[in-house]
Amino acid sequence: MSGQTVSLVMAGSGGAGVVTAGSLLLEAAARAGWYAYMTRSSGPQIRGGEAAVMLRLGTQPIASHDDCFHLLVGVDWQNVGRFAAEIPLGPDSLIIGDPGEGEVPEVFVRSGAQQIALPMKALAKKIPDGRPNMVAFGAIAAMIGLTEDVVVGVLRDTLKRKGEDAIAASLAAFRAGVEAAAEFPAVPRLPAGKADTTERWSITGNEATGMGALRGGVRFVAAYPITPATEVLEWLAPALPKVGGVLVQAEDELASINQIIGGSYGGVPSLTATSGPGLALMTESLGLAVAAEVPIVVIDVMRVGPSTGIATKSEQADLNIAVYGLHGDAPHLVLAPTSVADCLFTTQWAVHLAESLQTAAIVLTDQAMGQARAVMPRSAAVSFIGQREKPAALAEGVQYKRYANTASGVSPMAIPGMAGLMYTADGLEHNETGTPSSQASDHQAQLDKRLRKLTGYHYGDHWADITGDEDADTAILTWGSSAGPAREALERLRAAGHRVRLVAVRLISPVQPEQFAEAMQGVERVLVVEQSHSGQFHRYLRAQYDLPRQVRALHHPGPLAVHPGAIVEHITQWS
Amino acid sequence: MDACVKQRDYTAKDYKSEVKPIWCPGCGDYSVLAAITRALASMQLAPENVAVVSGIGCSSRIPAYTSVYGFHGVHGRALPVATGLKIARPDLTVLVTGGDGDGFSIGGNHFMHACRRNVDLTYIVMDNQVYGMTKGQASPTTEPDWEGSKLTPDGAGIESFHPLVVGLAAGANFIARCSSSDPNNVADIITQAIRHPGFSLVQVLSPCVTFRPEQLEWKHMVRTATVDVTDDAARAARRLMTDDGFNVGKVLYKGDRPAWQPEPKGVAAVAELEADFAL
């Protein structure tokens, strides 16, 4: 990662206010001119329960967490040990704990990190309505170089509805933390951020997905709530009506996908969002959208599976169902954003492609990027807007061929209300006019057409993010949220003199053999990186592409993220 | 051209396609198809502004047999498709056609929620108390002691589903029962159903002469209901729960709930929503 960064965690039991403090810290960092990346982990409780916010702040946009955290602040330690695997620490790390809240859990102590006592509760008690989380906030701010004027502004804006007393109490607790941290050992201090020349956003991946949908032209959404996709819907629900659309909460995922098929058949670009269990329920009707050639977009914010799995945590293991889950030969689009910011572009592109190609598009994001919040440069508007080819009016007596066997495979699609072009959309195999047919020749012709429209389309450079060295001998092949740590690994490897290229695949299906071969030019060895127990992406690449001779795979299941250091280690120790 | 000037008068034939139905001779669904085309003609709806949506089953083949816009989807999901279509395109007249298996078994959850949601749809269920397309299995409306299926040789053994009672309880805004043996009456009921706002449920007793040949007797068993339409759900429920299922030809319940149609609130540019994120 170019630029300087600092990584820290705030953890505590329910009610400790670590999520609030983390959000304030992110907001303050943004105002200080820094970039930020924040993820959260929480216990299984519906409400309350232990929580941890993991933040990485820096002078440049940030794509992933670091290998280790510099600082862990435990407002208290109740059950926080559960998150230990997600909070890697080392001998250079610092742990701040409140001596009144018990010992630092052994699992953290084992890291060899230096321990510092900060009596957050006692300090807070001295202040009327003072809270320990604000003391923690103050200590962290002092340690990383966040100035008080920025924090005052954030507290004023965030707490203005709670009144002056609340602001004063928070500020006093914050100052107590600043003061207490004066003699604390150093963690990386960030230099003052640059004057705000670029427009920046604070946005989650799920919000970015929603924004991408709207930019792409989606105006109808039907969906059933599911963790961790619900925030996509909760952002869209009030946003859609403002731009002339509607969102319906459906009775289940079967209804969700069929409602959007209905809306799209009516001519309105339509989308649903779900997670793995919902995608499984939707697969039959995904096939309907493919066969009837009705454009739809399905967002799958992946979580740990199978079955209910770990609903609140991330994994990249829905690739197989997304690519292969449909019955019959059902070519469709599968796309995956490569970062929080890219949730916007990829969703918008997916809408554009689904509309242009009249088929189903599945977008695979995941909990890690969906629920991560990033302070990032504003996402520039791009011109991908959903546009369907519509038929011209026909002469009287000429029958409209909805599924005309065109050269491109895309057949102009009539919309109800258009006179003289009435047809029946059908999941039954059909001939060119849409009349059901069980003839082998019609089946072959329609299969060919539905495949041709996808394989013959020119997807341009967007199929993958390719960065790194022109003369690379090594490539990292990855997708989805694993692209973040892979980007950072690439920078570290290049800085150490390795010639490496990163290919983060955005268009999973249909495959792009020519572009892929070009991306592999000169590459002798490939490391495939993903977060799946069985190595789904690795197996997919092996099945679909000609890979260089030396291929290794770095893959493990969720919820543990892939770390940049692990990628670097695999490549530097390749022998 | 003045949009208000109708180019011509539509006849029932104008709503019928040239696709030949796959149905058995004597199937009740022929009459229902004829009734739908007559209803549309009686309302003089422009074919391009009407859509017929269905799932899977013998009666679900109807869209292709009409000349309006049609959608023939997967088993049990006709109501969600129609719901999405009507919400996205409130200007269209949307009919849903299907059978008792499609609607009350595999699509049962959607049936309940479509009644409850009360989107302005007309749902025509051709009830023959059997799965015809898969060659004769018990459906939710089949009598528990019917032994005609190899799949349930001793009878299904469970009480039959009462679609109108369930529909009423779930919130359907219009409930009627008719018989395919009287297509003019079916056409009249469908016309009323289309005109009534909200979710309209029309059960048509439509015999399966192949797998339930005893249903040929239905035309002698049905009788015109002697009760008048009510807007009192409790009274309608009592009537529906006590009749034998052969009182036909009448609208049994008309509620006054307005149709549910979420409305877009504005015409803001998408860029205006960026304010949510801007620092």
Task: Please give a structural write-up.
The complex is a heterodimer of chains A (575) and B (279). With 575 residues, chain A is an alpha/beta fold. Chain A has 4 domains: 5-183, Pyruvate-ferredoxin Oxidoreductase, domain 3, CATH 3.40.920; 202-377, Thiamin diphosphate (ThDP)-binding fold, Pyr/PP domains (Rossmann fold); 389-457, no CATH class; 461-572, Rossmann fold (3-Layer(aba) Sandwich), CATH 3.40.50. Chain A is built from 18 helices and 21 strands. An 8-stranded mixed β-sheet of chain A has the order 6-5-4-1-3-2-14-7. In chain A, strands 9-8-10-11-13-12-19 form a 7-stranded mixed β-sheet, with helices on both faces. The mean pLDDT of chain A is 95. The mean pLDDT of chain B is 96. The N and C termini of chain B lie far apart (52 Å). Chain B has a single domain (12-276), classed as Rossmann fold (3-Layer(aba) Sandwich), CATH 3.40.50. Chain B has helices at residues 29-43, 62-65, 78-88, 100-104, 108-117, 163-170, 183-195, 218-221, 233-242; strands at 50-54, 69-72, 93-99, 122-127, 174-179, 200-205, 223-224, 247-248, 250-254. In chain B, helix 5 crosses helix 6 and helix 6 (163-170) runs antiparallel to helix 9. A 7-stranded mixed β-sheet of chain B has the order 2-1-3-4-6-5-9, sandwiched between helices. The chains are: A alpha/beta (575), B alpha/beta (279). The interface between A and B is large, with 69 and 55 residues.
Average of pLDDT of chain A: 95
> Per the principal axes of the C-alpha atoms, what is the gross shape of chain B?
globular
Mean pLDDT of chain B: 96
Radius of gyration of chain B using CA atoms only = 20 Å
Percent helix range of chain B: 25-40%
Query: Major beta sheet of chain A, specifics?
Result: 8 strands, mixed
What is the CATH first-level class name of the largest domain in chain A?
Alpha Beta
Unreliable runs of chain A, pLDDT <50, ≥5 residues?
none
The chain-level structural class of chain B is alpha/beta
Shape-level CATH architecture of chain B: 3-Layer(aba) Sandwich
In one word, what is the shape of chain A? globular
CATH classification, class level of chain B: Alpha Beta
Proportion in β-strands of chain B: 15-25%
CATH architecture grouping of the largest domain in chain A: 3-Layer(aba) Sandwich
Q: Whole-Å distance between the termini of chain A?
A: 26 Å
